[in-house]
Amino acid sequence: MPAAFSDIGAAAGASAGGIGGRGTAIPALLQHATTHVDFWEHLRRLWEYILLALSGIITEEATPLIGGLRAYTGHLRLSAVVVWIAAGTWGAHILLYWIGRWHGDWVRRRFPNARALILRVFRVVRRHPWRASLAVRFAWGLRLTLPIACGAARVPLSIYAIGSGISAAVWSLLFTLLGWALGNTTLIILGRVRAYEKWITVGIVVLAVYGFFAIRRRHMEEEVVDVLGKGDEEEGSEER
């Protein structure tokens, strides 16, 4: 017999055998039922936090926006959403750093079309390690390339870990709060949030997909590299 049912049976039996057995058995059963409901609720929340942590590197801004919305509707805690997403994306960027550090040549051979871009990013990282580390979560179009380049360029792990950690924390906080604000705005306009939560989530995902293809089409990664390397051309002209 499962432990949960045996616990309930024991509680009911003990209560029934005491003074006013029938009167105390029902509260005991309700107490045990509430305990087990709380356990499954905590398990559900933990699973949602893990999903948010793992999906941040894939679905990008959609993850903290949805997490903030879920926190607003009471399904999750706002502070926990921020911490889990920040930790998950930071861990993913540390992994990409080590891929670049130990398998940078393989990456360049595996993606020959991106070779020129990778070399440009590599040069910028060598000149601006702190700037590159702090930009990993805000370098649209380079969120995979930039951490790999930091590893391939042998940016000190201490610099990269601190910089990328700050970047992940700020990014997670910013977009999670935007998701929270989205829920609040929905409440003000429509009078309720939970009834429209699924549709809002679908809308966030659709916008995230559109943004991904828009960035690819505009070749925004080239613009980001120019921003990261700002000042290099002036220094080069002065040297000449």
List the helices and strands and how they pair.
Layout: H1 3-17, H2 21-59, H3 62-72, H4 78-110, H5 115-127, H6 129-134, H7 145-152, H8 157-190, H9 197-218, H10 220-228, H11 232-239
Key terms for this structure?
elongated, mainly alpha, disordered C terminus, 2 domains, disordered N terminus
User: How large is the radius of gyration?
Assistant: 25 Å
- H and E order: HHHHHHHHHHH
State the secondary-structure class.
mainly alpha
The residue-averaged pLDDT reads 82
The quaternary organization reads as: single chain
Q: How many DSSP helices?
A: 11
Q: What is the general shape?
A: elongated
State the major sheet: none
Number of separate domains: 2
First CA to last CA: what distance? 83 Å
What ranges have pLDDT less than 50 throughout 5 or more consecutive residues?
1-8, 14-20, 236-240
Q: How much helix is in the residues?
A: over 70%
- Sheet-strand content, in percent, reads under 5%
What is the number of E strands?
Answer: 0
